[in-house]
């Protein structure tokens, strides 16, 4: 359960995760359909990541979790 | 501690044992996160509360190539300690070469032995003030030198109030760790294996962590952690961060379902909540190891320390890092591993490479730079190869195992066609000599059996020859050494070493003329190459060749010159070969027992000072020979036990056959024929496996005496004749006086007058060459026996009386008496037999005493029966003179090295005596011994009776 979902969201986030490597994972997370509250992270918004830490941070970012910090920051 | 009550109690009993004055060892094994560190920490806290001294350290995954890392840290021997003992060790470690001058990677690892001894002495010293507890965590990553130190402490501190507690994971199971664990197991180590926590223990851990008893949902969640306490606490921390852990109605529950993934992902999930800058710092720190300095992190990241400090404090607040006072450290190494392994391999490589380059620019030690570059290297990376080789050469004197590993890494990185690769492989094989001689042989053969660089041929064959001679396979070794000398491009030093080893090989084969010729060439080559070690080897071979040929004055002259040159060599490098052992042996042959003892003692001390352990055992074997010849048989046996222990540690056993033969002789003369046969059989079996070695004919001599004792005169004669013929073929005149008299007696019994005449003439010749009382005695004894001539035998008695060899005097008295009795001179015969019996009684030579008594009875004399000194097997009266002295000094509070200084014996021999004392008195600590000595002083019972 990700932090954003836990606090009652303002809409679903649909994302696509594409893996270029599996272990540790590397690739990108793209927002397919963004929530109303996240204007900056709407459809097509993409974050590249490397490693599980990177993936987690990317998920925080596209879901707008406070743990993400400012956009783009892993 | 949850669920670890039994283990906590077991460790408390380990501390009890150490506090009582004896070494106690505990090894705690278990998977990562299972609670080893907590258990260790708890035991150390317990020790502190008992006012025991506690020192603790831990090995680091990325520091496995740093010699003595964890043990030196634990004992405070890093940096600039104020305590001069610690400062001395720190200086040794810091200088790298121990001030021993230029050492190559194929030099013996003197610094390693020196530091091992110094750390063990330090621990013993500390324990002399107050019981000492040494705790070392994460031994699975300990460097080989640290493990060797712990194993040595396990052997040498047996009678000191010390507890050693080590923790390790079942994997990786390095061979060095297994060896150390095996050695500590022999010291009676308690082995604790930690399994998963039971369900009730998990529940109580959860309750303590979250402050409320867990409900069924939460227990189901943490059940996924499989009883691993670290996993449980990390999972709870991640849930708390996520807000999925709720306490309602006094019960903790999981709010919503989370699937516990692996421990690693649980850790990463928690770490992922940290700010981006902190994560980047942690990722860089994970390259440096579980513990790291902010300075090093600043160097490898290029970020100012002040900037990093802020980011790192976030990680400290989140309990991902800890500040241990000296450096920052990941709270658990699994956290570091999780962060490190999460970096993609290509990124990790690039980061390591960059870190290595930045550390090199900042002037970091070669080992640290090489470690980083190697982790970032790909095949053909010359920068990494160069740093690895540099680090290997710097490390070799303190840790040949690490040097071999680094050279192996360098060779792996070299392209197959790299012109330097084969020479590097030869250098690697040379390093393996000091770790496992058979590995060195295998490595050399692997190189030589394939198409290889001609420039590597000579160096590899020299190493192979050395390895083979070291294993007692002198003929094979000699063949390789001779081929090596034909190889192109040998350096002067390589040529000198090849010739020196060839001379030693020829000596082993009994080719004295060839040995002397090779040694002469080697000496010139060594002098030209300015190689004091090769010069010592060559001169020792020259001296041995002269001595074995029966030219004792020439031998002494040569060895004296060798000792003089070694004294003058830089850092006394020439004494790294056992010149004093050879000199001591020559002096024994010259009947100069007191000077021999002083020389052997000086040689033993030189071994300690220079860290030469490989040849240390030779001094003990030759000291034992001296004690045997002088009639101090208990002391001889103590020296032999010490020598056997050293041979077990190093694998070096050049003089062990002689040592075993001396032991068998003592057992024979004490009339314990079964023990003598077992010991002699063991020596013969060793010999069969390795080929000729130092004074190996002594084994045959004992075997012949045993056969004679069994009534098999013919077989005894055959065996001793074969030994004699072998000596005669090689000109090994040194053995003639040793076995001559017994061979004459056996040959006379068999009616072989030809053999008798041959022996008499040969022993005569040796005696004529050397003005030595015992040699004159041997010649007269052989002649007197051959002619059944009482006058000559009485002259032999006089000669032996002027020598320091009581057993030979007693035997000759008995033989003279027999001849006189046959001629009717009963009174004179009785006097001689009384003299023989008195000597045998003093020596404890029960077999010879029984024979002398029987002869006296046949002359109508019934001696008042004293018997040999039949000491009881246990109790105060069972102690030997030396053991009584050791007991008194220990009771005064002296440590083993201090007792050794007083008695002119090694600390190892003191330990042997102490082991005997403890076993005989059935006590287990120095404190108990001191109490017993004091009690006896007070009641006036200090003498044996």
List the helices and strands and how they pair.
The complex is a heterodimer of chains A (74) and B (945).
Chain A: H1 3-6, E1 14-21, E2 26-33, E3 46-50, H2 51-63
Antiparallel strand pairs in A: 1-2, 2-3
Chain B: H1 5-19, E1 24-29, H2 36-49, E2 53-58, H3 69-74, H4 84-95, H5 110-129, E3 132-137, H6 144-156, E4 162-168, H7 175-186, E5 190-193, H8 199-210, H9 216-223, H10 229-242, E6 245-248, E7 251-254, H11 263-271, H12 276-288, E8 291-292, H13 294-301, H14 305-317, E9 321-323, E10 328-330, H15 333-341, H16 345-361, H17 366-375, H18 382-395, H19 400-413, H20 421-432, H21 437-448, H22 454-470, H23 474-486, H24 492-508, H25 512-529, H26 532-548, H27 552-568, H28 579-589, H29 593-610, H30 616-630, H31 633-650, H32 656-669, H33 673-690, H34 697-709, H35 713-730, H36 736-750, H37 753-769, H38 773-787, H39 790-801, H40 806-822, H41 826-843, H42 846-858, H43 881-891, H44 896-903, H45 907-921, H46 926-938
Parallel strand pairs in B: 1-4, 1-5, 2-3, 3-4
Antiparallel strand pairs in B: 6-7, 8-10, 9-10
Helix pairs in contact in B: 1-2, 4-5, 5-6, 6-7, 8-10, 10-11, 11-15, 12-13, 12-14, 12-15, 13-16, 16-17, 17-18, 18-19, 19-20, 20-21, 20-22, 21-22, 22-23, 22-24, 23-24, 24-25, 24-26, 25-26, 26-27, 27-28, 28-29, 28-30, 29-30, 30-31, 30-32, 31-32, 31-45, 32-33, 32-34, 33-34, 34-35, 35-36, 36-37, 36-38, ...
């Amino acid at each position: 359960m990700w932090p954003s979902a836990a606090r009652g969201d303002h809409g679903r986030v649909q994302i696509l995760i594409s893996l270029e490597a599996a272990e540790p994972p590397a690739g990108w997370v793209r927002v397919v359909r963004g929530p109303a509250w996240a204007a900056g992270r709407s459809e097509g918004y993409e974050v590249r990541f490397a490693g599980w830490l990177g993936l987690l941070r990317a998920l925080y970012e596209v879901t707008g979790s406070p743990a993400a910090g400012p956009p783009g920051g892993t | 501690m949850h669920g670890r009550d039994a283990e906590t109690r077991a460790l408390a009993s380990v501390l009890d044992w150490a506090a009582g004055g004896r070494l106690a060892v505990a090894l705690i094994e278990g998977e990562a996160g299972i609670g080893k560190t907590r258990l260790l920490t708890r035991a150390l806290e317990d020790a502190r509360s008992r006012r025991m001294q506690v020192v603790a350290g831990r090995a680091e995954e990325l520091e496995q190539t740093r010699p003595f890392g964890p043990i030196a840290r634990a004992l405070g021997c890093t940096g600039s300690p104020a305590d001069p003992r610690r400062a001395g060790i720190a200086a040794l470690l810091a200088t790298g070469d121990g001030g021993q001058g230029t050492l190559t990677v194929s030099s013996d690892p003197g610094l390693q032995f020196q530091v091992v001894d110094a750390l063990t002495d330090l621990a013993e010293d500390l324990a002399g003030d107050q019981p000492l507890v040494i705790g070392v965590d994460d031994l699975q990553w300990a460097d080989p030198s640290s493990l060797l130190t712990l194993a040595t402490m396990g052997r040498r501190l047996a009678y000191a109030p010390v507890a050693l507690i080590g923790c390790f994971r079942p994997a990786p199971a390095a061979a060095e760790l297994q060896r150390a664990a095996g050695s500590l197991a022999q010291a009676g180590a308690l082995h604790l294996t930690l399994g998963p926590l039971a369900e009730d223990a998990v529940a109580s851990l959860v309750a303590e962590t979250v402050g409320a008893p867990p409900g069924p949902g939460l227990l189901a969640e943490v059940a996924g952690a499989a009883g691993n306490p670290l996993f449980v606490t990390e999972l709870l921390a991640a849930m708390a961060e996520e807000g999925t852990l709720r306490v309602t109605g006094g019960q903790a529950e999981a709010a919503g379902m989370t699937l516990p993934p692996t421990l690693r992902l649980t850790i990463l999930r928690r770490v992922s909540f940290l700010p981006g800058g902190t994560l980047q710092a942690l990722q860089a720190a994970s390259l440096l190891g579980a513990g790291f300095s902010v300075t090093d992190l600043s160097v490898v990241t290029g970020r100012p320390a002040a900037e990093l400090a802020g980011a790192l404090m976030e990680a400290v607040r989140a309990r991902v890092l800890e500040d241990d006072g000296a450096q920052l450290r990941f709270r658990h190494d699994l956290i570091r591993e999780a962060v490190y392994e999460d970096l993609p391999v290509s990124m990790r490589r690039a980061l390591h490479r960059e870190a290595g380059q930045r550390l090199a620019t900042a002037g970091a030690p070669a080992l640290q730079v090489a470690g980083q570059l190697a982790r970032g290297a790909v095949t053909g990376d010359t920068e990494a190869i160069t740093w690895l080789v540099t680090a290997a050469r710097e490390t070799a004197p303190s840790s040949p195992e690490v040097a071999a590993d680094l050279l192996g890494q360098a060779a792996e990185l070299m392209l197959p066609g790299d012109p330097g690769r084969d020479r590097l492989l030869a250098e690697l094989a040379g390093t393996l000599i000091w770790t496992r001689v058979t590995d060195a042989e295998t490595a050399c053969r692997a190189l030589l059996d394939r198409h290889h660089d001609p420039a590597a041929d000579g160096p590899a064959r020299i190493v192979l020859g050395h390895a083979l001679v070291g294993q007692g396979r002198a003929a094979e070794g000699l063949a390789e050494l001779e081929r090596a000398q034909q190889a192109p491009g040998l350096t002067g030093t390589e040529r000198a070493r090849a010739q020196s080893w060839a001379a030693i090989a020829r000596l082993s084969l009994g080719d004295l003329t060839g040995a002397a010729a090779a040694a002469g060439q080697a000496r010139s080559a060594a002098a030209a190459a300015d190689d004091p070690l090769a010069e010592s080897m060559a001169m020792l071979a020259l001296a041995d060749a002269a001595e074995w040929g029966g030219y004792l004055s020439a031998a002494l002259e040569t060895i004296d010159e060798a000792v003089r040159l070694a004294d003058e060599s830089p850092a006394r490098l020439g004494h790294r070969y056992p010149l004093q052992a050879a000199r001591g042996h020559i002096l024994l042959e010259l009947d100069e027992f007191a000077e021999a003892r002083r020389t052997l003692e000086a040689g033993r001390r030189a071994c300690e000072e220079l860290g030469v352990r490989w040849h240390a055992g030779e001094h003990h074997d030759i000291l034992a020979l001296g004690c045997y010849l002088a009639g101090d048989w208990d002391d001889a046996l103590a020296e032999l036990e010490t020598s056997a222990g050293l041979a077990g540690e190093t694998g070096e056993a050049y003089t062990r056959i002689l040592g075993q033969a001396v032991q068998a002789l003592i057992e024979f003369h004490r009339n314990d024929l079964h023990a003598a046969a077992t010991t002699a059989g063991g020596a013969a079996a060793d010999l069969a496996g390795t080929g000729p070695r130092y004074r190996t004919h002594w084994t045959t001599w004992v075997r012949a005496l045993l056969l004679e004792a069994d009534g098999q005169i013919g077989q005894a004669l055959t065996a001793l004749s074969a030994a004699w013929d072998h000596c005669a073929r090689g000109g090994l005149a040194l053995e003639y006086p040793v076995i001559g008299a017994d061979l004459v007696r056996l040959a006379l019994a068999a009616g072989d007058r030809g053999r008798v005449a041959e022996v008499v003439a040969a022993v005569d010749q040796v005696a004529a060459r050397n003005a030595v009382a015992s040699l004159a005695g041997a010649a007269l004894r052989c002649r007197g026996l051959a002619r059944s001539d009482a006058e000559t035998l009485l002259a032999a008695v006089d000669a032996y009386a002027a020598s320091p060899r009581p057993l030979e005097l007693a035997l000759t008295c008995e033989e003279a008496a027999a001849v006189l009795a046959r001629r009717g001179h009963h009174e004179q015969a009785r006097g001689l037999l009384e003299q023989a019996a008195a000597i045998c009684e003093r020596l404890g030579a029960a077999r010879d005493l029984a024979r002398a008594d029987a002869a006296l009875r046949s002359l109508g004399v019934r001696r008042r029966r004293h018997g040999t000194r039949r000491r009881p097997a246990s109790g105060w009266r069972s102690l030997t003179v030396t053991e009584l002295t050791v007991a008194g000094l220990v009771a005064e509070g002296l440590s083993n090295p201090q007792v050794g200084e007083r008695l002119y014996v090694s600390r190892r021999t003191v330990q042997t005596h102490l082991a005997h004392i403890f076993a005989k008195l059935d006590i287990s600590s120095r404190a108990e011994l001191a109490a017993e000595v004091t009690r006896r002083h007070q009641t006036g019972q200090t003498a044996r009776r």
